[in-house]
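so my prof wants the structure for this chain in the tokens format not the other one, which i didnt know existed until like an hour ago. anyway here's the sequence
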Amino acid sequence: MRVLVIEDNEILSRNLVKYLVSRDIFAEASFDWKDWLYKATTKYYDVVILDINLPSMDWLEICKTLREKEKDVSIIMLTSMWTNDDIVKWLNIWADDYLVKPFQYNELIARLNAVIRRKNVNKSNTIINIWDIELNIQLLEVKKWWEIIKLSTLEYELFKYLLQNRGIALSRQQIYEKVWWEFQIDFMFSKTIDVYVWYLRKKLGKDLIETKKWYWFLIK
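here's what i got, hopefully its the right format
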């Protein structure tokens, strides 16, 4: 889990980061608009913990920027001043959860875990992860270290088919029928699949796809 804390109280912010790191959570802090803007637009975070009472930053603009950059980022609001109407508005429009100051760190951990669980349930049918690679079936895209990797249509379909059958050795015939939608006996001696596997290894990692006895291919 990667967390960004946007909080102008440096003591609170540093203590939060220190505690999250002690729980094996990657965490960073931002204290001013230049710093959070740089981090929010150049790095990926699963959750942003955002103080909405920032004196020098507009929290609505922060939320808008975060959503535009990474639509599935989860936002947990921190506030010391609130009403029921405020909470309803935040949860309906911007936030995934909220905490009222002062709060216990163990409650923060529980809420972090809860928003991640909800995100994983929503993504479970469309997102497949392996190592540092993410395949998004809904968006038809592949990311490595959160950077989009450009794949041709056949590269994408071959990678998706192998990944959806992870741990299963797939034959050349199976691959041709599912990815190329055809199979002829002459294809058995074609190097087409080998070429596309080489493309994927070059773009995603040389150890990603294994070849078994020339005929079978799999992702472990």
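also thought this was worth mentioning. The mean pLDDT is 82.
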